[in-house]
Write a structure and sequence with these properties.
Blueprint lengths: L1 H20 L8 E5 L5 H9 L4 E4 L2 H10 L6 E4 L8 H7 L2 E5 L2 H10 L7 E7 L15 H9 L4 E8 L11 H16 L6 E3 L6 H6 L4 E4 L1 H4 L12
Parallel strand pairs: 1-2, 1-8, 2-3, 3-4, 4-5, 5-6, 6-7
């Protein structure tokens, strides 16, 4: 697993340089390792190399991993599409959910979050390009959903998440990332406290950090290439 260790070092250096280039403070950005379809041994190696935030897309796969790795101090993020019949396990097992896009889902996560656990950290997914195959709300709908989520006591609204269209030129995503950052600021001005922007993946993390990202979802640069189907929500 030396290769994973080397990849993590390279990724962290890219993040550091991107923060410096953007005039941001070191450690403002969290690297979220997208570990879907990766073996437990690879996750363990990444953890031992210094990462402790991991993102999973597929619940049944994640349940097995969480059980096998329960002795490690990992913060687990759910970053996949959420089905209503899966909310109980997500609410019970994860510390973060990045893909809330309906009040129905938010309410179920709230109601099913164990009372002995801290509130579940959530981000609202924004479908900026209107892609039918992706989840997320329209930008114009974010404020209403955010206020509704804020009223749910077992959830803690942290910020916004986006998954822009795949493009060969990372700079193409600059306007979308900038718009999401501006939307976050508008919501803050309207009294909705947010501190998180989940945006940017292996190919465009520098662009995302330059536009204010606080969580970059990195799969390929750490664990190796995935096919196009596997990339949804992370990379």
């Amino acid at each position: 697993m030396t290769e994973i260790t080397d990849h993590i070092a390279e990724t962290l250096e890219r993040v550091r340089l991107a923060q410096f280039a953007a005039g941001r403070t070191v450690d403002e950005v969290t690297v979220l390792a997208v570990s879907k379809q990766q073996p437990v041994a690879a996750i363990r190696a990444a953890y031992q190399a210094g990462l402790w935030n991991f993102g999973e897309n597929f619940l049944q796969e994640a349940i097995v991993k969480l059980k096998e790795l329960e002795a490690l101090d990992i913060t687990w993020h759910f970053i996949g599409r959420i089905q209503s019949n899966k909310t109980r396990d997500i609410a019970e097992l994860f510390q973060w959910v990045h893909t809330v896009d309906r009040l129905k889902i938010a309410a179920r996560l709230n109601d099913q979050r164990p009372h002995f656990s801290p509130p579940l950290n959530v981000c609202i997914q924004v479908n900026q390009a209107g892609e039918a195959q992706k989840g997320g709300v329209k930008e114009s709908e974010v404020a209403d959903l955010a206020r509704a989520v804020m009223s749910l006591p077992r959830l803690r609204l942290r910020g916004l998440m986006t998954l822009p269209p795949t493009t060969p030129d990372p700079q193409t995503n600059t306007p979308l990332f900038a718009r999401l950052n501006r939307l976050k600021e508008v919501l803050i001005e309207a009294g909705i406290p947010l501190d998180t922007l989940s945006m940017g993946m292996s190919a465009d993390l520098e662009v995302a950090i330059g536009q204010g990202s606080t969580i970059v979802r990195i799969g390929t640069a750490i664990f190796g290439p995935r096919n196009s189907i596997q990339r949804e929500q992370g990379d």
